[in-house]
Specification:
- This protein has 389 residues and is of the alpha/beta class.
- The chain has a seven-stranded mixed β-sheet, with helices on both faces. Strands 2-3-1-4 form a four-stranded antiparallel β-sheet, with helices on one face.
- α13 links the parallel β6 and β7.
- α3 runs antiparallel to α4, α4 packs across α5 and α11 packs across α12.
- The longest helix is centred in the first third of the chain and has 24 residues.
- The chain is globular.
Length: 389
């Protein structure tokens, strides 16, 4: 909670944040409501903007715990008051004035239920305990209840990690080397102006979690290899693979996302190495970065846990197995299967089913990353090599 105690709450304007909080509680994405509030109120000072962002995101994330403090109330003003009083440590009268609500009686102690303490939907609380055990679930929840670090990948087509760090430092942006991926830098400070930098405009880096970088490196292309990125999306891993010397065929059924990839490839000077393909094609290596429940990336969206429909998760393993079946005949050398979730049903179970169905592939590596253990988003990945025919 230390982060919340450092916010300039005295600058908070309830007329800006309460309508946004109400829409978030009704199901609107918090990120969209933050953007809407800031665009509608462009005259806000720096402190007012900071307080507004932290208030909207804070209630979005901590709503269940705040409701516990509020004795079950779901009123946006009361929840905001409890955020200010019970989590940020403001006195009752100051919190009440800023939120525009009467303070409910204080509850002693902290919530005993992990779901109340870490503000989880009940289904997710039970799921994490089943997957990670009680201690692991507690540590995982603590890790995903604060924003993840801003991680960058140096674009090896244009610079080294050290050269990128020097360029950013010259623009007043401090970084530290990542601890796991060779091209990773972690930006320092609360709000570094990365996308206003000349280094960004010159294509020297891409924002990419260090765990995501490690997944891309599992493909291990050598210079001249072809790689099919079967679920390319907006192309973060396609760009990484191109920077490693691969010729990338990027496929995704969402044309909006592949349009973004084309734009990103031009900025990264990788457009000659990446071809967007309408249908999957044969390649030396295939990356199946599969659609998943995304439970490993909860720290990237404070309200993501509240917008997941658990009933929609049941069809994911079947989709993931179909994607691997698509990849199998197309991969000449290696398949990498990856998700950003912690569900065994989407991870180990899918991988084991593929191995039973395809003895022509041998498991080469397995990667498991968790926020509380590795400081990255949560990822699972398996690399299989095709046995010689």
């Amino acid at each position: 909670m230390q982060r919340l105690r450092e916010v300039p709450w005295g600058a908070l304007r309830k007329d800006v944040v309460l309508p946004a909080i109400g829409r978030v509680l009704d199901g609107a994405p918090a990120e969209r409501e933050v953007d809407r509030a800031l665009r509608t109120n462009r005259a806000l000072s720096r402190d007012q903007r900071t307080a507004a962002v932290e208030a909207i995101f804070g209630v979005a994330l901590w709503r269940r715990r705040l409701s516990w403090h509020a004795s079950g109330s779901q009123d946006p003003a009361v929840l905001l008051l409890c955020l200010l009083r019970d989590l940020a440590g403001l006195p009752d009268d100051q919190a009440a004035a800023l939120a525009g609500a009467a303070p409910p009686p204080r509850r002693s102690g902290t919530p005993l239920s992990p779901g109340d303490r870490w503000s989880l939907p009940q289904w997710l609380e039970a799921h994490l305990v089943a997957e990670l055990g009680e201690e692991g679930a507690e540590a995982f929840c603590e890790a995903v209840s604060v924003p993840g670090p801003i991680c960058l990948r140096a674009n090896r087509l244009l610079c080294t990690r050290e050269q990128l760090a020097a360029r950013l430092a010259a623009e007043g942006i401090e970084t530290l080397p990542g601890t796991l991926a060779p091209d990773a830098l972690r930006a320092q400070g609360r709000s570094p102006n990365l996308f206003g930098s000349q280094a960004w405009r010159d294509g020297l880096f891409e924002p990419q979690d260090e765990g995501s970088q490690l997944v891309g490196l599992l493909v291990e292309p050598t210079a001249g290899d072809t790689v099919l990125d079967l679920c390319a999306g907006a192309g973060g891993k396609s760009l990484l693979l191109a920077a490693k010397g691969a010729r990338v065929f990027a496929h995704d059924p969402d044309r909006t996302r592949t349009a973004r990839l084309r734009t990103r490839a031009v900025r990264a000077h990788a457009q000659e190495r990446i071809e967007v393909v309408p249908t999957p094609v044969a390649a030396d290596r295939v990356l199946v970065d599969a659609p998943c429940s995304e439970l490993g990336t909860l720290r990237r969206g404070p309200d993501a846990r509240w917008r997941i429909d658990p009933a929609q998760l049941e069809w994911l393993p079947a989709l993931q197995r179909r994607l691997l079946e698509t990849a199998a005949p197309l991969a000449g050398q290696r398949i990498v299967y990856a998700t950003c979730t912690v569900r065994r049903a989407e991870n180990e179970d899918v991988a084991q089913a593929f191995e039973v169905a395809h003895p022509e592939f041998r498991r080469a590596r397995t990667l498991r990353l968790l926020p509380h253990l590795h400081g990255t988003d949560g990822f699972f990945a398996v690399a299989w090599d095709r046995l010689r025919r």
